[in-house]
Amino acid sequence: MTRPIVIMISDHHTSIFVYHAIRNLGVTHVIQEDGPTEHRPQSLKEWLIHQYIRWATPFMRWTSQKRIQEVRKRYPLNDLSIPPHHIIHVSSLNDDKTMMWLEKLAPELIVVHETGPIEPSRLNQLPCPILTIRPSMAEGQLQAYWAIQHQPSFCETTLEQWTTQGWRVLERVVIYKGGTDNFATYPYLQLTTVLPMLRRHIETMDSMKTDHRQIKVQA
To answer: Is cis: bond before 76, omega within 30 of 0?
Structure first.
């Protein structure tokens, strides 16, 4: 028996892949933040990097179609639209409307993907596990920038869970980059690597829940 799962997203195009990768594991709804994600650069260098990625990525995506298709063959990334009846639109994931919906939906697991920062006080109110994939391309693009630039041939992606002390790494895996990889191909490299890990973790949580239920019945 699967657990009810809610996915929280913004408008990043790769969130569709996450939805389809785990929807058969119990996804009931997607809460989408439609308001703009505010980005406040901390320095001129950070602002320049942000602007560079913002304007360069569409061009890189156009010139990297062959590489993107090659990477997508590693894992079936479904880009069909999320069914409208599964989507709940909110202006911000930090507002009371979002919390009201989460209370009503009562998920047993929340997966956060490519959203703006969610206030810790809000996350601490949620009684179920919360998972996310990092580095994030939504948080000012800077995490993705350093992920692709930090090492010449590889970088890491992590599956993390929220705790009262912040995000805790559950599992990490190395992404190996080719010579033509860039900011446009990176999301595909990341997801083809981490989505099997996310599925496996959710399935393990379901298995543990089932085992616990059987132990209680036997007792």
So the answer is: no
